């Protein structure tokens, strides 16, 4: 599960970077460029938070057994 989420995160960052380069090269509006930057920051944070929740959930299940 962790490896899958890590690969998804890496892929999302790469796609976001490529989109950011494309948007800046084509002269997109500042709102589009800022949205791309926002997504490049927020997506990895969500993935990290999801992994933390899974880790805490598994820890709680191990203690209850």
Task: Describe the 3D structure.
There is one protein chain. 92% of the residues lie in helices and 0% in strands. The radius of gyration is 16 Å and the shape is elongated. It has 65 residues and is mainly alpha-helical.
Give a concise summary.
The chain is mainly α and 65 residues long. The protein has 2 helices and no strands.
Could you list some keywords that capture this structure?
65 residues; mainly alpha; 2 helices; 92% helix; elongated
Instruction: Tell me the Rg in angstroms.
Output: 16 Å
Helix content: over 70%
Class inferred from helices and paired strands: mainly alpha
Report how far the terminal alpha carbons are from each other.
22 Å
Measured by DSSP, the beta-strand proportion falls in under 5%
Shape: elongated
Oligomeric state of the chains present here: single chain
Number of helices: 2
List low-confidence stretches: none
SSE string, helix = H, strand = E? Answer: HH
Mean pLDDT: 86
Major sheet summary line: none
How many DSSP-defined strands?
A: 0
Summarize the SSE layout with pairings.
Elements lengths: L1 H25 L3 H35 L1
Helix pairs in contact: 1-2
């Amino acid at each position: 599960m962790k490896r899958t989420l890590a690969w998804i995160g890496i892929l999302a960052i790469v796609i976001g970077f490529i989109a950011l380069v494309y948007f800046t090269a084509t002269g997109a509006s500042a709102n589009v460029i800022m949205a791309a930057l926002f997504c490049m920051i927020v997506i990895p944070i969500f993935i990290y938070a999801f992994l933390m929740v899974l880790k805490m959930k598994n820890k709680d299940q191990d203690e209850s057994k």
